[in-house]
Amino acid sequence: MAKKVIFLTGATGYIGSSLIPKFLEHGYHIKALVRPKKDTSINRLSQALSRFYPSPTDISKVIKNIDIIEGDIAKENLGLSSSAIKSLSHEITDLFHCAAAVSFNEDKQALLRAHNIKGTEHIMSFARFFHNAHVHYMSTAYVCGQRKGVIKEQDLNVGQKFNNVYENIKCTAEELAHDYANRYNMKITIYRPSVIVGDSQTGTNYSNYGPYGILRIEDISIRKLRQEFEKQNPIFQNSAAKIKDGKFFIPLRVKGNNNKKLNLVTSDYAMEAIFQIFISKENIGKTFHITNSDPPKVRLLKDCISELLNVEGIEFVGLSEFEKKPMTPWELIFDKNIRIYTPYLLVDEPKFDDTNTQSVLKDCATKQVYFDKHLIMKLLRYSRSTGYGKKT
C-alpha cells in the first residue's frame, strides 16, 4: 500500500500541531500549509511543536519529515501556483483542514467569514484537484447553537439561533463543506469537538478560550478591584468588601447558573479520538462528536477559580437577581468584560450524542476523563503559570 500523505492546514494552531506527533508516529508524511508572516514559517511551526519536542535537536529531526508549504486559506487555490498544485495532486491521500479563526466578538465578523467560510470554500475547491483524496474537516460541536435536548451527530442546521457570530459562521461553513462533498462526490469526515482544554496528566495547554478565558478575565478583574479597594476607592464605601488573612472578599454577582454544565474534553482524549476516527474504516460520510458525556458544572469551575485567585464572594446568579437589586459599579465592569462567555455560563447546554465516536473507540484504550476538582485545578494552574500563554 502506498504511503499516506496528509495535507494539513492549521499546523501552527492548537489542534493541528497536536495532531502532527500522532501522524508522524504512525508513519504518515505531512505537507503543512503555513501562512507566510514576518517570522519564518519554519520558526513558527517549530515553536508550535516545542510543547511535544522540548529538545531543539528533536524538533529539527521532526521538521525534516514535514514539507512546509507557504499559503493562505483565505486566498483562492490557497495562494499556490498551478505547478505546485499539479505536483501535490499526485501525492496527497488525505486533506486535514484544521485552520480557522476563533472569536466570539461581533466586530470580528469579517475576519471570521474570510477564514471560516471563504477558507472552507477554498479548501473544498482545492481538494478537487486531488485524485480521490479524503477530506477531514474540523468543525465544532457548537454548530448546534441554542438548541436543547439531544443533538445527534448527523444534525446540523435546523433553523436554530446562535449564541454568537462564531457559532453561526461555523455552521454555515460546515454546510458548505457538506455541499461540496455531495456535489462532487468527495470523501469527507466531519469532526466536532466541544471545548478542548489541557492534557489530563500535565495540564499543558495553549488555548485562551473557554474556562481559561473566564479565569483570565476574573484574574485581571479581581487584581484590579483589590488594588482599588486598598486605595480606598469610594465605590467600595458601605460595601462588604474586605481583606482578611490575605484573602480578598468581594460580593460579586455574575450571570450564570451553578448547575449548568460545561462540555469540556481534555486534549489527550480529543487528539486520540480524532486520530482513531481518522484511521477508522467506517468514517467516510460521517460526523463525529468529540464531546463529554458527563461534563462538569459551572459551580465547580467557580469554586476552583475562587480558590486559585484567593478570593471569596463570587457567585453565579440568574438574571432575575439583577432586577431585584441593580449591579454595583464593579459588577457592571465585570459583566462587560465577561459578556462573550455569558451564554456558556447561563444557558443549559444540550446533550451531545456521540454514538459514532464511541463506536470507533469501543475497542480502544481511549476513554473520556472525569473532570473533578483535582483535574480542573491542574488545568487552571498551568494556564495561570504561563500568563495565559504569554510565557510559552
Q: Please give the order of strands in the largest beta sheet.
A: 3-2-1-4-5-7-12
| Topology, number of strands | 14
> Distance between the terminal alpha carbons, to the nearest Å?
40 Å
Element-level helix/strand string: EHEHHEHEHEEHEEHEEEHEHEHHHEHH
Please report which band the strand proportion falls in: under 5%, 5-15%, 15-25%, 25-35%, 35-45% or over 45%: 15-25%
State the name of the first-level CATH class of the largest domain. Answer: Alpha Beta
Largest sheet: number of strands, sense, barrel closure: 7 strands, parallel
The average pLDDT is 93
> What's the tally of helices?
14
List the helices and strands and how they pair.
Blueprint: E1 5-9, H1 14-25, E2 29-34, H2 41-49, H3 56-63, E3 66-70, H4 82-89, E4 94-97, H5 109-127, E5 134-138, E6 150-151, H6 165-183, E7 187-193, E8 195-196, H7 211-230, E9 242-244, E10 247-255, E11 264-265, H8 267-279, E12 287-290, H9 298-309, E13 311-317, H10 320-324, H11 329-338, H12 342-346, E14 351-352, H13 355-361, H14 373-385
Parallel strand pairs: 1-2, 1-4, 2-3, 4-5, 5-7, 6-14, 7-12, 8-11, 10-13
Antiparallel strand pairs: 9-10
Helix pairs in contact: 1-8, 5-6, 7-11, 9-14
